[in-house]
Write a structure and sequence with these properties.
This protein has helices spanning 11-17, 33-45, 67-76, 106-115, 135-146, 166-180, 201-211, 220-229, 249-258, 261-268, 272-284; strands at 46-50, 56-63, 81-88, 96-103, 147-151, 157-163, 195-200. The chain is α+β, with helices and mostly antiparallel strands. 27% of the residues are buried.
Length: 297
């Protein structure tokens, strides 16, 4: 009969010696690239509806060609959710085939709402998260949902975003300037009240390459389009436009004092056309008048 080793560790002790299984990311931890992307996409293209009591739902409906991203959202969500398809007539097609991801769990909805996805109409209300988040992944999600990537009719690379949110539009401008050096100032479109932020040529190539990095979660067709921009090179006969010269408050004062674009152009070292447009903007309130400008500007 074999001797019993009283010094051998028990099964309980052996269990204590084994490494603990690695914990996955917390649901909607926006420092995780996939959740940051998912949240940006949901802010732009999702709808959070609040029913009576504990009822409510989060839905995202997109073209069925992009259904793969909804399966990724389902995989990332540790709550019951469903994906359905339907074919219906729209203003653009008699047989529009779409896919919808639906999440009803109250705890999940509360988490997403708390991060900044409002219930009901939200296009003007959304803002970048107020917690730490993966910035380029968040912006890629917004652009995948509400933006475009590709080549113009003239073959120029571009990346753009159409949004009703001033906060999101301005954030993209600040971020893109840090990445590409290209400055943009946003203004609402007079026709429908939205912001259209556009980058072309080298700025588009740089921004697309930065946002759509290898292995990132994204719509496959936009990831392919972003990759296609990398091969663009500026033609030898295409001149480079110098950066815009911003107007100073003292220049506006001179322009308003003369009230004459042609008389002021030489004094300011600007073109008559530039002075004429600036004078019109000042008089019509399209830009802030110098008396409303902070000192030192």
């Amino acid at each position: 009969m074999a001797e019993h080793d009283t010094n051998a560790p028990s099964l309980f002790e052996i269990g204590d010696l084994l490494p603990a299984p690695a914990a996955g990311p917390v649901f909607m931890d926006l420092e995780h690239p996939d959740y940051a992307y998912m949240f940006g996409f949901l802010q732009a293209d999702g709808h959070l509806a609040q029913g009576s009591g504990r009822k409510g739902r989060l839905t995202v409906e997109i073209n069925v060609r992009d259904i793969a991203v909804l399966h990724e959202f389902q995989r990332l969500t540790p709550y019951n959710s469903s994906i359905t398809e339907r074919v219906r007539a729209t203003n653009f097609s008699q047989e529009h085939h779409s896919a919808t991801w639906t999440l009803c769990d109250q705890e999940a909805r509360a988490r997403i709402n708390g991060l900044g996805l409002p219930y009901g109409r939200k296009s003007r209300k959304i803002t970048p998260p107020r917690v730490e988040f993966s910035r380029r992944d968040y912006l890629r999600g917004v652009i995948d949902a509400d933006g475009s990537v590709g080549h113009t009719g003239q073959g120029l690379p571009f990346i753009s975003l159409t949004t009703a949110s001033a906060a999101v539009g301005a954030y993209l401008c600040r971020y893109a300037k840090a990445v590409t050096g290209a400055a943009r100032q946003i203004g609402r479109n007079a026709r429908d009240g939205v912001f259209n932020v556009l980058y072309t040529k080298e700025a588009a190539v740089q921004l697309a390459g930065h946002l759509y990095y290898p292995g990132c979660l994204s719509l496959a067709r936009k990831r392919t389009a972003a990759a296609s921009l990398a091969s663009w090179e500026r033609p030898a006969d295409m001149s480079v436009r110098p950066p815009g010269r911003r107007w100073k408050a003292w220049e506006d004062r001179v322009l308003l004092a003369h009230d004459d674009a042609s008389a002021t152009a030489t004094e300011l070292g600007r073109s008559e056309a530039s002075c004429s447009v600036r004078l019109w903007r000042l008089k019509t309130g399209k830009v802030r008048r110098p008396e409303d400008t902070p000192p030192g500007a």
